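Hi,

Apologies if this is the wrong queue. I'm a grad student, and the batch job for mannan endo-1,4-beta-mannosidase from Musa troglodytarum produced an output file that my downstream script rejects. I'm not sure whether the problem is my script or the file. Here is the sequence I used:
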Amino acid sequence: MSILPGRPGSWLKPSAGHNRARAGNGIVYPVLGIAVCVALIYLMLGDFKFSPGKSELSFVQRNGTQFVVDGRAFYVNGWNSYWLMDQSVEESSRPRVSEIFQTGAKMGMTVCRTWAFNDGAYHALQVSLGIFDERVFKALDWVIVEARRHGIRLLLSLVNNLQHYGGKTQYVKWAWDEGFGLSSSNDSFFFDPSIRSYFKIYLKTILTRKNHLTGIEYRDDPTIFAWELMNEPQCASDASGDTLQEWIEEMTEFVKTIDKKHLLTIGLEGFYGPVSPEEKQNINPGKLVEADLNEKVEYISKWITSHIEDGEKTLNKPIMFTEFGLSTKAKNFEYSHRIIFYKSIFNKIYESARQNGAGAGAVLWQLLVQGMEDYNDDYGIMPGERPSVDKLIKEQSCRLIAVQYGKNSVDKSSVIC
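Support response: The file is valid. Your script probably expects a header line. Output copied below for reference.
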């Protein structure tokens, strides 16, 4: 789950492919880092569900600042449901996964971001270093098949920076308990050669996994929208960013030697680092907890605009905002505030899409179904409870589909517009 220390009552996580700039001394530093969420992406998406006349799925590719499928621009209106694999282990809870896919599809959503990791926790995929539970792997197989059945693509995150579902903390603990870890510090996940080697074993195991239901290896399955190296990577012990940058370069190169078909996102949150221009650093979030709704909307607008400009002028890559939400704990919160806040984000993405810009989409945090209160947080949404939110999401889907296919080529009844 995406919980930041001191996270403001509203937040957004951008996503793109290479999130770095080279300083004059030749050292590579992160340009965008953490907070309102922007990840720079290497992603590959496939054909949108409503594409006319195609039953076969194509991989999504990148063409400059846009995602494309079969030469046509692809825009993302997506959501987070981190719990899909966990809820697919037991037959009794699988209907929840089917329901959320069906719900997302009815609202015209295209991509779901979810965890493809669980390290040492309940329903663990990786029960110890390099040892995997086949029953849980079969659950992930089923998630991928079920997603495709509903016309949904998956953005699969591969490890957590946080302790939820094990994450880097569990890797470090395993190595320390086995007696070969260099340090008990969580950040040794990034610099300990043994831990890096074990993470590569995990990566290779995931990428080359043959789905027992389809016989297709994950690296060959276009249902997977993209891989995300890590949920919100941070290496607090090295403020220069060098350690994290070296880890990113090593792991992205390793992934690309195995899987040349999918795009890859780092998973950074979008903060500007110390080598960024001062005007960019000033866009980093301050103390937004006490900000009112208007101040948050104004801030988010600047944040999104700045990162889209980065995608267009510096990175030449699409920018996708992979988490955004408004907390029920926000100052003077009312549910109507979510409509205003979400709409400000949706409008920025839509305007960028209309202008063939780098704003490639946004992914809401998070959607759940009834009976999942234990998985909820103060950002969660249960479709059907607030019709105005459902309507807004559908409208955004329709707008992006119209840009993608042209207004005259969209069957409005099938898109539920």
